[in-house]
Amino acid sequence: MLNLILNENMKIYRRIRTWILVILLFLIILGAAILVYTHLPQKDPNWRVTLQQSIVQNNKIIQQGSKSGVPANMISQLKIQNAQNQYQLSHNMANPLTGWQFSSEFIMTGGNFLLIVFVAIVAGDIVASEFSQGTIKLLLTRPRTRYEILLSKFLALVIFSFFLTLCSVTLSILIGFIFFGTNGYSIPTLIVTSGGNIASVSLISFFLMIYGLNTITVIAIASIAFMISTIFRSSAVAIAISLITLFVGSTISSLLQSYSWDKYLIFSNLGIAGYLTSGPTLPGLTLTFSLIVLFVYVVVMIALSLWIFKRRDVALT
Amino acid sequence: MELQTVISLRDLTKKIGKKTIVDHLSFDIHQGEVFGFLGPNGAGKTTTIRMMVGLISISEGQVLIHGKNIRTDFKNAIANVGCIVENPEMYKYLTGYQNLKHMARMAKVDAGNQIDEKRISEVVDLVGLGKRIHDKVSKYSLGMRQRLGVAQALLHRPSILILDEPTNGLDPAGIRELRDQLRYLAKEEKMAVIVSSHLLSEMELMCDRVAIIAQGKLVQVQTVGQMIDSEQEQQSMSIEVNDVGEALTIIQRTCDANASQSAEVKNTIQFAATKEQVATVIEALVKQEIRVYRVNAQRKTLEDRFLEITGGGEIA
Predict the structure, then answer these.
(1) Which of A122, A254, B211, B213 to pair with B96, CA 20 to 30 A apart?
(2) Domain ranges of chain A
(3) Domains plus CATH for chain B?
(4) Of chain A residues 126-145, which have a CB less than 8 A from chain B?
(5) What is the value of ipTM here, to two decimals?
(6) pLDDT digits 0-9 by tens, B270-297
């Protein structure tokens, strides 16, 4: 099995396409950094006053919140904002954006989608291309079971998800340092706990959590692409369907909000990294619940892929 | 000497829906022979080969490789086989060497049969790819891809080599080279080599025995020698004489009522006769003082025989 995974890795990393994706990732992070840097707010001499006013306003909304029907995740976000503003005031920091914050902001706002799209491209192709190139015949006429072949491909995909995440962390921190400095390690990072309260965690564990949870979302979407790739043997269809799930999924989820089974849909559980910064999107969802749902979906999709792959006649191409 | 059987087909059948693509094929293939599957397009050759290597499921019957059932003991059965099904498709974005490494990693894991770098370079030398092995396959010519295909099939020292339509797309030099290579592997390395083709003249030069398949059924298994020369068979003859009219009546009387004057060659008669009948005809002509300049036996090729057997090779 190890040998098969080595093979799949070789086929991923010896392909120019993979490195084009990494270079693209680098360019997009660089572009984002340049954009943020040129749009940094002018030094406001009254920044203390502005922050204090915003704290007062936020507190009003928070107090009225529960009565006037402001969504819970919005209130959580305001609470976090207040706590951060308070920290800025007490530490005399006019501008809180540093390299570390740039990196975490990047993965929360856009970087996550980017990683999903890139991994889906590889996932949608990993089985389909063996069929379209005819090389599937090389794989299936060697003393390995079809289960082993397909599982090695999936595991290589999981490794690739971690690889691309690691690229993203490293590149965004390095570029963040260059543009926004290396300070800010000690700025409190606040998360919403499962009980809806605000808690402070260390920067390292915050990074591990958001990047880790995002990787789980990446793997879940990659599994969709992988399954479609195995069933339809078309990389275009696989990439399209998995990305449609990603972009239309949250809309579908909120449309079906009134049904009690909405929370069991895969769409409703994909945004798990967001639970940390603003809490769950649907009532009844928790991080543990979503992780279990995603795990079950991935297992079912891989089992279905294996079942179909095992029975497939590799007919005339 | 009893030849060792390496592959047995037992009532091998493939049905798709109600259509029977391959219909109860049974025969044995021995060590050290080049065995051909012969049949028109759509006869079921490729389907048969794909069942033999486990690419498609078997509806009925069995394929036994060294006595091991491909369906129930796939890993042990297929470990003896090297194959190229249709074109030698390799990973184009990898080099030839990386492709071989990929295949080496897929071999059966046991201590006695490790495929190390030495073995890889051995096979590279065998197929003569030495200089170009570290180039990307996308830069290879078709002939070189064919060589790489053979190299990957031989890598794990199989006792059976299966090639589906191996001469497709090769130029005459490439075909010749491949033929010599396959004959060498069968004779010197004692491998069983199985090829399928509809190129009859090729099969005639390449194979020891052929199985003729038409419409999914086995028509017969024969040695190539048997198929071409048969004592009792009539062969088509042409004879050049000085007096065509006289000679024609004599030939029509003595052996072949359908004998006719050749339209293309002057003073020549074409007729069909067995070996003995030819002697009789010549004797009769000479007795009538007709001068016989030339007698040609048109050697029956596998092609003629094949067309006879399959009834013109119509597609079902």
Answers:
(1) A122
(2) 2-40+97-311
(3) 5-228 (3.40.50.300), 235-299 (3.30.70.100)
(4) 133-135, 137-145
(5) 0.82
(6) 888 887 888 888 888 888 888 888 888 7
